[in-house]
User: Fold these one by one.
Assistant:
Number 1:
Amino acid sequence: MVEKLRIYNSLTKKKEVFEPLEPPFVGMYVCGPTVYSDVHLGNMRTFMSFDVVYRYLQYLGYKVRYVRNITDVGHLENDEDEGEDKISKKARLEHLEPMEIVQKYTNGFHDLTKIFNMLSPDIEPSATGHIVEQIEMTQALLNKGLAYETNGSVYFDVAKYNKDHNYGKLSGRNIEDMMESGRALTSQDEKHNNIDFALWKSASPEHIMRWNSPWGVGFPGWHLECSVMGTKYLGKTFDIHGGGLDLQFPHHECEIAQSVGTYGNDPVRYWMHTNMLTMNGQKMSKSLGNSFLPSELFTGNHPLLDEPYSPMTAKFFMLQSHYSSTLDFSNEALKASRKGYKKMINGLRLVKQMEFVEDGTERGEAVVGQIEKIIKACHSSMNDDFNTALTIGQLFNLLKKINSLHTGQLGFSAIGKEVFEKMKSTYIDFVENILALKEENPSDYKEMVEAMVAIYKEAKFRKDFERVDKIRAGLKANGIIVKDMKSGIEWAYEE
Amino acid sequence: MVEKLRIYNSLTKKKEVFEPLEPPFVGMYVCGPTVYSDVHLGNMRTFMSFDVVYRYLQYLGYKVRYVRNITDVGHLENDEDEGEDKISKKARLEHLEPMEIVQKYTNGFHDLTKIFNMLSPDIEPSATGHIVEQIEMTQALLNKGLAYETNGSVYFDVAKYNKDHNYGKLSGRNIEDMMESGRALTSQDEKHNNIDFALWKSASPEHIMRWNSPWGVGFPGWHLECSVMGTKYLGKTFDIHGGGLDLQFPHHECEIAQSVGTYGNDPVRYWMHTNMLTMNGQKMSKSLGNSFLPSELFTGNHPLLDEPYSPMTAKFFMLQSHYSSTLDFSNEALKASRKGYKKMINGLRLVKQMEFVEDGTERGEAVVGQIEKIIKACHSSMNDDFNTALTIGQLFNLLKKINSLHTGQLGFSAIGKEVFEKMKSTYIDFVENILALKEENPSDYKEMVEAMVAIYKEAKFRKDFERVDKIRAGLKANGIIVKDMKSGIEWAYEE
């Protein structure tokens, strides 16, 4: 019997058995990208990790509603309550309407999710799509006395909240420490306390993104959107909330405070956080020049990269570590992952073609026991907080047995039809549907056509007409005709 | 000198020279899909037509802001003010949250736009994303006395509006006729007049999509979103508004009334409408069973279709008629379009490879004159209200000259480098960037690999080792290795 799914809960700092609120339904919310620039690789690792979580929960039979938002307003430059709105700033720099910026980078993000073979979430709501609800939650917090208005902006009163609740419980921070270490307030400040955060910001006249509200023209604070959209689509309490570790504080801490303040209960049962990327052991960051975009990885067009690495190589590489570990990029590791990915995908092609045949070999209880143990381990490693790293190792163990069957070293009858089918479906399910790796075209089909035409030319030169006819027929079956022109041999699409 | 771009304006019923309000900027709004089911072929024809408009305006040097919305609330079943909200109804039937319906069919629509090689609009706003603005426009119309509230719903007062303005000017209808022909009102009715339309609808307790408003809980009327989003992103007056002919009344007529009522001016300078589809001469409709989805066209999986037709064949077929004509589908016409598409795309491959070489042929003023005339005609046919049908004919004329050059019937020096380059760039620009046709993979690359492996096997059987080595090297260059197994010859990705 395979043990139950356990999830490391960042809130309790423990691995816990996963028990959804209303099985078989599972509600999962993941903080999506702020669409003011190309999504970076660390973000993609987060979304890819939760794509695997989404797929595995469905594999286990849960009916999952997966909500991943698009942040298209409210995220300020310094991730706190100061500086310009990230999207408004980019719009100003590029002389575009903010929603053009949003469209451009949302499209780019969606393209990447397809390239990485990820599923769409069930709902992908945006912050600007929920202004009414954000105004209402702000009003509710004002009504409860947990927020105050200054100059048309509304702030959450953290100290007051903390009297009855624990602000800092997710990130393990202490409110006194935070108050001491924060910037000292001046008489210019609108906040009562440096740890208070904005629910609604008054818009200066030049701020492009603006809506009317009971407090004047403004825009919502960054943290508010996720509380509003999580509640709207998943309820006041839901099962899983995920995001990058960099969002744990202040973003997720503030989400908890907003929901507890408004509804009186904790919004999330299991908090999950993905870890950061490093390059050759050093934290990736734009300022160090050691971070790269997915597109740079795919083209190899970056000083730190020896060569291009394909999307599936990059995906395999990321899945080879557990989502909660830091992940170190290096050319050596990527090259090793390419080998690993190709090996795994060759296994997939192979196992899909294999059919059980009685070959009269003798039943081998030992090998049957080994295979069943590996199959069980595939499940138990995923059940161990979605440990894709361990799962990949187990799949390679399974592949060894598959290869033995293929080469005839191991007989089909020795393991029997039932075990064979279980082995086959486990390998296919885990590789194709859970890790979601897929075959990549090794080259443009046109290169293949050119290669065949080259063979055709040579055969023609040698007057090997039997072969000439065969190649011509083979190409024609693929919709391509070979033309003997005065100027030489050409190919074209059959008209 | 090529004549100026002229557009048939549905409002004035005339072809007019296109003069944008603030050149070089052009604002264009197109009514997007209501995402409660798979987008049908007629919709796709509309969006494809405006994709060509968008591309051609950019080709002419305009800086276009193209807005195409997503209708995700407010569109009622009977396209008027009665019946259930289309998305809410589907959500109820499928036991899903309405925004899950929205996500599913928006994804499907986006996939189709990629399959048809269409550009993304610059902004793709949604109705639910603009609730605040819709409430505000409703309030403005109430303030002007052009709307009234009944039982928490707000209706536009058409008769009152018509005293100073002309309701019906776009669709060519007369208000008295409309009032007479409409359903007689009963004492149960909330409307003062049968031609009034909803700006805001009160939500019954079981209605899932609902927002607070000054008039109670409800949702916006269908026509309002386009007025709001057009104004927000393109201004109170903008250049082009497009959509299917079925939207002309009431949807676009109501848009005009809302904007004129609120801002006192006509919102749109050029109204453009695409025409309907027929099948074998009969109007396509679900009830007649003679309509099909794009996916059915691509798979051939429909009783009226002989075989599958590829996306580019379908696109070429649609572009072969003018957007304002009805378009008749038939197997014969689709087969002819496949031939035409392949011919055009073979021309594209050919001309891209051609380079000018001085071949010493004598300058032929007559042929130069012919070519220049065709090039001019490519432009003037597009300038004639985006007549893609005529343009395709001219491109085939140009292709004849290109083919003559290729076969040597026409000498390069006879036309000179300058004319050659103009001919080449015109053909490429029009086919690839304006009509936006692209090469389609004639087959899966794997079939090509299999074909090459078959030749390899045969060569090996004949012990033709020189060829065996060549094929092996050719495949390896494409990342594929051939393996000689006991059980036969296999291929795999190089690990």
Number 2:
Amino acid sequence: MVSIAILGFGIVGSGVAGVLTRNREQIDTAAGEAVRLKYIVDVRDFPDSPFAPVIIRDFSVVERDPDVRVVVETIGGCGVALEFTRRAILAGKHVVTSNKALVAAHGQELLELAKLHNVNYFFEASVGGGIPVLRPLKFDLAGNRITGIRGILNGTTNYILTAMREEKLSLEEALRSAQARGYAEANPTDDLNGMDAARKLAILSDLAWGREVRAEEIGREGIEKVSLKDVECAAMLGGKLKLVCEAKLLPDGGLTAFVAPQVVMPGSMLYGVDEAYNAVLITGDAVGDVMFYGTGAGSEPTASAVLGDVIDAVRHRDRRRAINWSGTPAVLSDPMGLGGRWFVRRRDIAAIEEQCPAVPKGEDAACYRVLEK
Amino acid sequence: MVSIAILGFGIVGSGVAGVLTRNREQIDTAAGEAVRLKYIVDVRDFPDSPFAPVIIRDFSVVERDPDVRVVVETIGGCGVALEFTRRAILAGKHVVTSNKALVAAHGQELLELAKLHNVNYFFEASVGGGIPVLRPLKFDLAGNRITGIRGILNGTTNYILTAMREEKLSLEEALRSAQARGYAEANPTDDLNGMDAARKLAILSDLAWGREVRAEEIGREGIEKVSLKDVECAAMLGGKLKLVCEAKLLPDGGLTAFVAPQVVMPGSMLYGVDEAYNAVLITGDAVGDVMFYGTGAGSEPTASAVLGDVIDAVRHRDRRRAINWSGTPAVLSDPMGLGGRWFVRRRDIAAIEEQCPAVPKGEDAACYRVLEK
């Protein structure tokens, strides 16, 4: 029997506890032994929760308990989550996380620390919620030279852009609708400005190319300036405006990566990815295009990915699974060099010949890259 | 260093040899040690092949060579492929295959034999070509109770139906076009009648539910009777006729599975899956819908999946990865009980109230299930 502890009893943590309990029998079978939830660490009280008996406040209890072999970190952010992750690894425990901010900012350090202490640090749930993508990229596609990654990695903005198009809402109205449905947080800044998507693209790029891509260095444009007019013009072209993440291996061996709203045409598999769904299209030299699609966030979908990692950690509990994430920093080339078609909207039609990407977004004008495939 | 042998130097075998050689460095890194191609076994001569120096005729050389730890079976069929697979396992070698006919017919026996001899029998490439789907289903989604599988698993028929729709071809013309492009074999019977798709659905169902689903028992209708008229009528409805595979866990715990042409509407993620592409949509109680999409056949895409398995076999060469495939036979319920909308085409409009599935396909009439989501 293996005991696990969950740090943080929020949306994801409670999902993990719930699914682990509900599907106990098959999870035990998949893991090869019984997996039991021994502690949930949270500073808040949950007197009415069925999990109240295992909820504790003091992480050091987990840290000192040799029964706990796997720690699930669903606290989020880079504060106490970082501290507890380091301490859990130092105590010889495997760590599984859904915390993309922590993985993007400290992934390399934590993977090195895990290597040193012969444990695993798994983070499938940090990209694409429940969609299996990191493990397939790292293991199933390991025979390929990866040449490109393209995806819709932020469910909040995808929901907002879908609502604008289908219900003719302004950005502000669509954001309120997303918040009302639990698809956007009270402070949606990192969703709207593309930072959340950039973090996930950085994690994917790190795994695909073994070079450290810093989220802050990824060329980034959010959806803050997208107007209903832009969404409607894109629809007139037969396309859908979506916040697309792209990273490419260039012919010279360099990398480029960016996050920006693009007009996605029906020829692209990303065209059908609406609402809060996510998708990642990976191109390999042998496999061609492979796409992974599903629910990119939420309690139980994210719990599904966390539990896949927990099962893997239990199965490999005496053995590390090597993840090649080198500390070599990637130097990113300017994505404007990629070329391609652009969609330009201007009141002043005479000026349409100007350099497209330079057109400022606003009432009178906007321009977006067009994604044909 | 680990040596491998490839059995059969056809489309898939030559793809494996080529990609393994081209991407040697990263495959060695992913596997954790050098992976070298020591033998290719084929009864034919390939004097001009760069691999000629390693091509041999006698399988017993492989069988007796303790250096060979992983055998790749890309012969196909259930004759010599079955014999060599058994002998390789008996000799203590891991076996990786792309042979869906063998896995569907003898998977359980071979998995048991592998367990007995403490080796792995991997077959990712047997379903969906290069698309990672079996390992994600078995490991990443292992925290879920799987409730449904829906997919387009045969690239040949998908190419034919796409060509009929886009180029207004008859079934016969589209088949010739598929054969000319290498998407259909000289004898396309098992593609057209849905048997190839049923084999893949059986493999997916076995893994999802741990019960032995026999391909022969899956309700099956092929595309032999699909006319251009049907394809055009489906398009008038806004849909696309596709050969869809479905398996479902029923509320009573039973299973149902069938393969049949269906009218796929734009609300379904399968709508965008055209040409020779494949896709598998898996529904889990925690994750919701997850889709895996990519090239379902061909030399290098299939090689990508085979090499993912080879890397896994090398990484786990001293340790079995348990795959739960019980010998308990599944009893399949009648899929007609599922309900849903039907598309009916009749010359004789007065008869339209008849039991839909009973409408015989032909010049005067046809009926197909409609797939909304």
